[in-house]
What we know:
alpha+beta; 4-stranded antiparallel beta sheet
Amino acid sequence: MTVKISVRLLFELAEPTDTMLQFEAAAIPEQHILSAQTAMGRAVHCARVAAQDSIGERLMLRIEGKQAIDYDAVVRVNRKLPDISSLKALRPHELPGEAIQYLLDSRYCLADKFRSFVDSEFEGLRGGAQIAAMRDWIQGHFVYTPGSSNGETTALDTFIERRGVCRDYAHVMVTLARAAGVPARYCSVYAPGVEPPDFHAVAEVFLADPDGPGGTWQLVDATGMADAAETVKIGVGRDAADVSFMTTFGMANLIYKDVQVSTI
């Protein structure tokens, strides 16, 4: 599947401010960047650094004043998509070292608080079958409500309110998976069909590879909006704090944001 991406950002900083951006599609084996162009204004400092798990890059900038950023890309997605419900779970001692951190609590995903719920609600299920049941449970019990959460909203808050946006759905999915002993990470993506059009967030879980030894990361979208066959990864992290499209170490005002994603 070939996906076309167009992003327009405009923000303003009153004084020189260190800013971290992550919005470009990641160059990884499961997706090939056919073309990509990033245009931006002058920066006092500009450097590229590897993002979490070496998936994608972050732009580290020191900038001030109004800054416009234009990003256009065409990406071909070619990832393996087994039936997730058929995949087995891996025991903690079978996991690669880099997956262990995704079993642990993080800022927005307090998995320890959900262990009893997971044990009772998804009793008798394990591995991919349990993950699929969690995805379906979230989709059936939550209402997608723009504006219902903010940067302080945790998975526990969303679980209580039973509403949120893609960020919140992903946090709950990650949290339930970790509570069941399945490594799960937050994944920032581009996906056609997202309404309203914007950056999108899904979960990614680590389960046994059906084609051989070891494990494989599989995308899980509890909102039901993104098709993994045409989803383009930007970056991954423990939760949204690790992969925000813009993080500023000072005051900033986002004036305009437009994200358009389509298949071609």
